Amino acid sequence: MIRIERVHIKKFRGIIDLELDLAGQNFAACGPNGTGKSGIVDAIEFALTGNISRLSGQGTGELSVAKHAPHVDFRNKPQEASVELHVSFPALKGKKATILRTVKGASSPIITPPDSEIEAALEAVSLHPEFVLSRRELIRYVISKPGDRAKEVQALLRLEDVEKARA
């Protein structure tokens, strides 16, 4: 388990600059459409995995993290779109780390301090991206035919990707 202590989002999705002090607690984001709720979830997923699940996979067409993660006003400056997470790892005796990831360097996060146990924990998270599910994904499961639900769950949890990573 990873506990998010603080998140700092800059020029990412619909957010110019936002810092949230979560103090390792659960949180909920609520508000009218277009206020950045999904942007916060996307930012956390991106910081942990380098990806945004709702911009990848089946049915997303030409969407991509590289093109669609930077704030629209900074689309041509992916190096300025970043997410920084301050996290703790209860299972690793409370070790703390900072994860900084930019859209330009999405596949190469900066983890401070460098620590093999922390890196292994983050790798485990990237193999199980089901920690964030969009409304669209949940609705797709709910409205699927009962005979197709097993297939939908496999797609929802990206079990093919997990199998590829294992291989």
Description of the structure:
With 167 residues, the chain is an alpha+beta fold. Helix content is 32%, strand content 22%. The chain has helices at residues 37-49, 65-68, 116-127, 135-143, 149-156, 159-166, and strands at 3-12, 15-21, 82-89, 95-102, 110-112. The chain has a 5-stranded antiparallel sheet. Helix 4 (135-143) packs antiparallel against helix 5. The two termini are 24 Å apart. The mean pLDDT is 82.
Question: Which terms summarize this structure?
Answer:
globular, alpha+beta, 167 residues, 5-stranded antiparallel β-sheet
Strand order of the largest sheet: 2-1-3-4-5
How many strand units?
5
Following the backbone from N to C, one meets helices and strands in this order, namely EEHHEEEHHHH
- Spans of at least 5 consecutive residues with low confidence: none
- Number of helices in the DSSP assignment: 6
How far from one another are the termini? 24 Å
Profile the largest sheet: 5 strands, antiparallel
Q: Could you say which structural class the secondary elements and strand pairing correspond to?
A: alpha+beta
| Proportion of residues in extended strands | 15-25%
Helix content percent band = 25-40%
Overall pLDDT score = 82
Principal-axes geometry comes out as globular
Q: What gyration radius follows from the Cα positions, in whole Å?
A: 16 Å
Briefly summarize what is shown:
The chain is of the alpha+beta class and 167 residues long. The chain contains six helices and five strands; from the N terminus they run ββααβββαααα.
